[in-house]
Specification:
Layout: E1 5-13, H1 19-27, E2 45-50, E3 54-60, H2 71-85, E4 89-94, H3 104-112, E5 116-120, H4 128-141, E6 146-149, H5 158-168, H6 186-201, E7 211-219, E8 223-232, H7 235-242, H8 247-264, E9 267-276, H9 284-289
Parallel strand pairs: 1-3, 1-4, 4-5, 5-6, 8-9
Antiparallel strand pairs: 2-3, 7-8
């Protein structure tokens, strides 16, 4: 273990910057839920990669909520603050057109002296001239900070980013066993699959008003039994989620089950319930119940 490297690489950025997509690519597994909607990620999620020479603990963080409307948003922003302090390396993801000024999180990253890289994502959606303009903009603003342009979706320049990470990892024994992939339970993974499906299928405020708790997870020889409750903030949202004659909740269940079976590698029996917990995003007791307390 002499000269073994190990460290925490925290991925930070605004909503829809591509943080979860990048985490999944770097880890080589679909750990983080990905949807076109902002604020898909609410909690920090670790993805662990271990080799004979190093261990990288990647951390996906919630997108920065500029103007928090709920206590849930405030809690999500605290996760970003924590990520700024416990990182060995910071990857700050930006999209084309993002402004350099008036960014308090970016200012804190600069002051922290932690090895950091500006990751310009989505180079696949702009031409070479625009890429060059974006790179000049960020290099002018942060001349002493590494800048790497990538396409997380097309996996372009990922190897260059990985080289930066390995070069800047501190010498340290591994923090996790070599066979560990993430720090969260399978129950949590299943609940996120259900929530991601709701984000995909419903519009406006409904997807953002739900939380999912898996309250039964039983693995049998040839099937896994999963029972989960979808909590929403209003009765009207509950009715929409269930849908006419249960068509809405049935579709959520069908698509979620496919994801679960692919992850677990076996058949899944999934039963879903829908309950109302009014104003839960602003209620401290409810937030604690859902695990937003640490």
């Amino acid at each position: 273990m002499e000269n073994f490297k190990s460290g925490f690489v925290n991925i930070i950025g605004k909503p829809n910057a591509g943080k979860s997509t990048l985490l999944n690519i770097l880890v080589g597994e679909k750990l983080a839920s990905i949807t076109p909607k902002a604020q898909t990620t609410r909690r920090r999620l670790l993805g662990i990669v271990t080799t004979d020479t190093h261990q990288i603990i990647y951390s996906d963080t919630p997108g920065i909520v500029k103007d928090p409307m709920y206590k849930l948003h405030e809690w999500m922003n605290t996760q970003i603050e924590v990520a700024l302090h416990d990182a060995d390396i910071i990857l700050y993801m930006v999209n084309p057109g993002e402004k350099t000024e008036n960014n308090p999180i970016l200012e804190k990253i600069i002051k922290s002296k932690i090895p950091a890289c500006i990751v310009l994502n989505k180079m696949d959606i702009i031409d070479e001239k625009r890429i060059s303009e974006e790179e000049v903009k960020w290099k002018t603003f942060l001349p002493d900070t590494t800048l790497i342009s990538i396409s997380a979706l097309q996996k372009k320049n990922i190897a260059t980013l990985q080289e930066f990470i390995i070069d800047n990892l501190p010498v340290h024994p591994p923090y996790y066993d070599s066979d560990e992939l993430t720090d969260v339970s399978e129950r949590f993974m299943m609940s996120e699959m259900i929530r991601a499906e709701i984000l995909k299928q419903y519009k406006q405020e409904i997807p953002y008003s739900v939380e999912v708790i898996v309250h039964e997870f039983k693995e049998k020889e040839d099937i896994t039994v999963i029972k989960a409750t979808i909590y929403t903030g209003k009765d009207s949202h509950k009715n929409i989620i269930i849908g006419p004659k249960g068509t809405g909740i049935k579709k959520v269940g069908t698509e979620s089950r496919k994801e679960m079976e692919a992850w677990l590698g076996k058949k899944v029996f999934l039963e879903l319930f829908v309950k109302v917990k009014e104003n839960w995003k602003n209620d401290e007791r409810s937030l604690k119940y859902f695990g937003y307390d640490s």
